[in-house]
Design goal:
Blueprint (H helix, E strand, L loop, with lengths): L4 E3 L2 E3 L3 E3 L8 H4 L10 E2 L16 E4 L2 E4 L8 H12 L6 E5 L4 H11 L5 E7 L10 H4 L2 H14 L4 E4 L7 H10 L4 E4 L3 E4 L1 E2 L4 E2 L5 E5 L4 H12 L6 E4 L5 H9 L4 E4 L1 H5 L3 H15 L18
Parallel strand pairs: 3-16, 4-7, 7-8, 8-9, 9-10, 10-15, 15-16
Antiparallel strand pairs: 1-2, 5-6, 6-14, 11-14, 12-13
Bound molecules: ligand RRO.
Length: about 300
């Protein structure tokens, strides 16, 4: 049975990877799960300089899902290359490095520098962080600005470029098509949906940053709809994400056209989630006599039986 998928020139042994940010740089996960079983490894967003992130509290569990306002905490490019890459290189799955900047030039500089680093297989260009005042989601909200970032990255690297899109837009298809024209090799969607939580007793916002990004099952229908629309409107492959907790959630994303899936919030609930999803997909194919996972990608039936 074939679980292998091709994505932007990368060969993934299965279509399941962590969503950026929910897996750090893999060190903690490696003590619970065999990282070699994953389709790819995806890092937390890297910026040129180290960042401490937003004031606490930065995570709140709501009945509808998880709100985070981490604010791009990361060790910065040079420390990432020096301290995190040697660990990640020990594993076989391709390493996808997520990058974020507050200017177009910062994205380009990150891409240029990471092109020189052994073991970096692809860049996920984060134009959708909801928790920073400069850059982030602002780039991903306008097709022209999104295209400008991707063009600048395209000019300085031959690495595959995966543009990570925000759902906080009027027309996600327009942004997807703009970044495709600008040279993106794949898309990942959706990043988190902006929201807030209120402590009515204290009459205060719960998060130090006031607002945060909502993830988990609450956003799955929104993510499925976005992936379905985008996958039909572009030629490049889509990595689907947003509330994938189980193998059947992952299957739904593949059916609407995702070539691969990323698991985020579920990693925080159980470090085994990704492995269970891979096993669940394998079982589904076996039980339904499907020899190749590629056969179910985009195979949603739109006519009633
Ligand atoms: O670090 C964050 O606050 C963060 C990022 Br960069 C992102 O892309 N999405 C998100 O929900 N949080």
């Amino acid at each position: 049975m074939n679980l292998t998928v091709e994505l932007a020139g990368l060969k993934l042994q299965n279509p399941v990877m962590p969503a950026s940010g929910t897996f750090g740089f893999g060190e903690e996960y490696a003590s619970y799960v065999d990282l070699n079983a994953l389709g790819a490894l995806v890092t937390k967003s890297i910026t040129l300089e180290p960042r401490l992130g937003n004031p606490p509290p930065r995570i709140v569990e709501t009945p509808a899902g998880l709100l985070n306002s981490i604010g791009l905490q990361n060790p910065g490019l040079e420390a990432f290359i020096r301290e995190k890459m040697p660990f990640l290189r020990r594993f076989r799955p391709p390493i996808i490095v997520n990058i974020a900047g507050s200017t177009v030039d910062e994205y380009a500089e990150l891409a240029r520098r990471l092109g020189e680093v052994p073991g970096v297989a692809a860049l996920e260009v984060n134009i959708s962080c909801p928790n920073v005042k400069e850059g982030g989601m602002a780039f991903g909200s306008e097709p022209e600005q999104a295209a400008e970032v991707i063009q600048a990255v395209r000019r300085v690297t031959t690495l595959p470029i995966i543009a990570k899109l925000t759902p906080n837009v009027t027309d996600i298809v327009a942004v997807a098509q703009a970044v495709e024209r600008a040279g993106a090799d794949a898309l990942s969607l959706i990043n988190t949906l902006v929201g807030m939580a209120v402590d009515w007793e204290k009459r205060r916002p719960v998060l130090g940053n006031i607002v945060g990004g909502l993830s988990g099952p609450a956003i799955k229908p929104i993510a499925l709809y976005a992936v379905w629309r985008v996958a039909r409107s572009v030629k490049i492959p889509v990595i689907g994400m947003g509330g994938i907790m189980t193998a059947t959630d992952a299957l739904e994303f593949l059916l609407v056209g995702a070539r691969a899936v990323a698991v985020g919030t579920a990693n925080l609930v159980s470090p085994q989630a990704m492995l269970e999803i891979i096993e669940g997909l394998r079982e589904y194919l076996m039980q339904n006599n499907i020899d190749d996972i590629n056969k179910i990608i985009g195979s949603l039936e739109l006519t009633s039986p």
